[in-house]
Write a structure and sequence with these properties.
Length: 444
């Protein structure tokens, strides 16, 4: 009898670890499926944002206010002409002005702006402001430029937009009307992306996935949820709100390398209403041109905006698990088919695990690619984009560990820079006295 029991124990002993491996694979496939279903139905950057064009609010009876559009520009010769022309061609029925802040450009940005300002259509709207190259202590470049423009603005509403953005003619009218109708204090748009080269087509879906996972639009738009973000390519806010907060001169904003996100966090924390909208058909942008610029841009964003080194390391581990490994599952199961059979698995179970991991992934990618105007087969590049972002993440982690910081537009953002974010003492941005509404004096 004892011999029979011993044989049974020996026969059943290996089955426990074998079954454990199969359970691990099932659990992994199930977790991956839930991850992409969450992205598809909760955190989609376009479909889960509010929409002005799909669901417009009733028109407000309040008259449209004067608006000041502020554009910080540093070495933007490739973009500034198209951007400013689109701003000057708005069909906004009330008065508005465009203030372009030249933040120490060393290329032809200033010359292009002067050509634009000489046009008759720009004479009554366009104002140019030139800042000194050297920043005051504790300031980052973009907050300094935005605050300088806001100090010169006349409008009761402010719009902050980037020099690489391109507006549709009705953008200002629709967004201001929406903000008034809903009683918003801050309105921001997730812009339509111009994917002119293969590197943007490869990486942008994954970048949007990461950003919307960190800040799901429905949660951002809930007043009771502390999550807050905005997109610096289009931020519309009340001037009274900006001044009540202290603007970008506020200590935690003046040195921010993620000025849009940090501004939204302060706005929501103070109890004001903000909303993130789908900006397709309203604002278009092309963020980076070519792989080197794309690498530097996303490295800077990850370095300053990922939540610190622990989160960067978690992302470096998690990225291959949810982006690369699902595509490797069929190959791994096929190569290990003999082991799979020894574990008691069969072909049907293996196929079920693969489909459970991949179908929600492809469903999410198809919805996102369709919103971006990409073909269905672009989803097959998902793991390649994951490998590229793993390289960017690894370099950002290394620079964080070594304290080297990252360079962006001739300025270095690093550990020493971050310490300046909390520097004491409010300072109004310094600028040259020659800011003008092309040959008219600026407001003091």
């Amino acid at each position: 009898m004892s011999r029979v029991l011993l044989k049974r124990q020996v026969a059943t002993a290996p089955q426990r670890p074998q079954r454990s491996w199969r359970l691990v694979l099932r659990g992994y496939a199930l977790a991956t499926a839930f991850f992409y279903l969450f992205l598809r139905w909760v955190a989609h950057p376009y479909l889960r944002s509010a929409s002005i064009q799909r669901h417009p609010s009733p028109r407000s009876t309040e008259p449209l206010p004067e608006v000041s559009i502020i554009v910080p520009a540093r070495n933007e010769e490739a973009n500034i002409w198209r951007c400013v022309r689109s701003l000057l061609q708005q069909d906004y029925p009330a008065d508005y002005e465009v203030i372009v802040v030249d933040d120490g450009s060393t290329d032809h940005t200033r010359a292009i702006l002067e050509q634009l300002a000489a046009e008759p259509a720009a004479a009554s709207r366009l104002r140019l402001l030139t800042l000194a190259e050297e920043l005051p202590p504790g300031w980052a470049g973009k907050p300094h430029a935005l605050h300088a423009g806001a100090c010169q603005a006349r409008g009761s509403w402010l719009v902050f937009t980037d020099a690489d953005s391109y507006w549709s003619p009705h953008t200002l009218r629709l967004t201001v009307s929406e903000a008034l109708a809903r009683g918003l204090d801050l309105l921001s748009l997730v812009p339509e992306q111009e994917l002119a080269d293969r590197w943007n087509r490869l990486t942008l879906p994954l970048a949007l996935m990461g950003m919307s996972l960190q800040f799901p639009p429905p949660l951002v738009n809930q007043a009771c949820c502390p999550l807050a973000t905005a997109n610096g390519q289009y931020i519309l806010l009340r001037r009274t709100l900006y001044e009540a907060l202290g603007g970008y001169a506020r200590p935690e904003l003046r040195g921010s390398a993620l000025d849009d996100r940090d501004l939204a966090a302060v706005v929501k924390r103070q109890g004001y209403r903000l909303c993130l909208y789908d900006g397709r058909g309203l604002v278009r942008v092309q963020m980076y041109r070519g792989l080197p610029a794309l690498w530097r841009g996303w490295r800077k964003t990850i370095f300053v905006g990922s939540g610190g080194l622990p989160f960067m390391l978690i992302a470096l581990v998690g990225l291959p698990l949810v982006v690369v490994l699902p595509f490797l599952l069929p190959l791994l199961l096929w190569l290990g088919r003999s082991w799979w059979r020894r574990w008691g698995g069969n072909t049907r179970e293996a196929l079920g695990i693969v489909l459970l991991a991949l179908l929600p992934l492809f469903s999410y990618r198809r919805s996102l690619d369709k919103a971006l105007g990409l073909p269905w087969y672009q989803a097959l590049t998902h793991p390649v984009a994951g490998l590229l972002f793993m390289g960017i993440l690894a370099q950002a982690c290394w620079r964080k560990l070594t304290g080297r910081g990252v360079e962006w537009r001739g300025r270095v953002y690093g550990a020493r820079f971050q310490a300046h974010r909390w520097a004491a003492g409010l300072q109004r941005p310094s600028h040259k006295a020659g800011s003008h509404r092309h040959s008219s004096a600026s407001r003091p």
